[in-house]
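Practice problem: predict the structure.
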Amino acid sequence: MDNSGWWTIPKEISKNGKPHRVFLSPKANEVITLAKELLPESDWVFPSPRTGKPFIGSSIDHALRDIKAQEIIKVDFTPHDLRRTASSMMTSMGIPLLTVSKILNHSAAGVTAKHYDHYAYDKEKQAAMRAWDRKLNQILTDPNKVKSKQSPAKPKNTMPKKILTNKKKEKKNEVITYEQFLINNKLKDLSKKQSKR
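Answer:
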């Protein structure tokens, strides 16, 4: 990390093999400062409590699993879900998708983006991260007041309750529920998220 608030991830460890500049928002700097104060003797910002070596992706997965096992967090999610949520919220705030893509270090698609556009988008990434920092502070201060430009989420099962005609039974025009239709036809509801276990 340099003194201007930018952290450069070397190409050797970035996900697309290219160096990636990340603007560290005030909240990120606050977390890093606190981490250094907690373990001033460490060479690493976030060392593993077991080995003292730096955290790697699987370490974060293990830590999250431990937290879930202790029921500190009662919602099932992965670290990648946090990345996806941040991306979705940034675009809902009006941050251009190209800027969000640059923040996430996604590889560019298309000839112009791939071969001709060598602009770093630092100004846009910095402005976006500052806006995201304000949104995070708002969420952390009062989660009930958080609003996005996104339309309200649809309920998980948006299928109306009584719209299907039961053609298996004698009563040809009997109206049945969606759930009963699935049971009668020995079908699974693929609109519901299936457990990975």
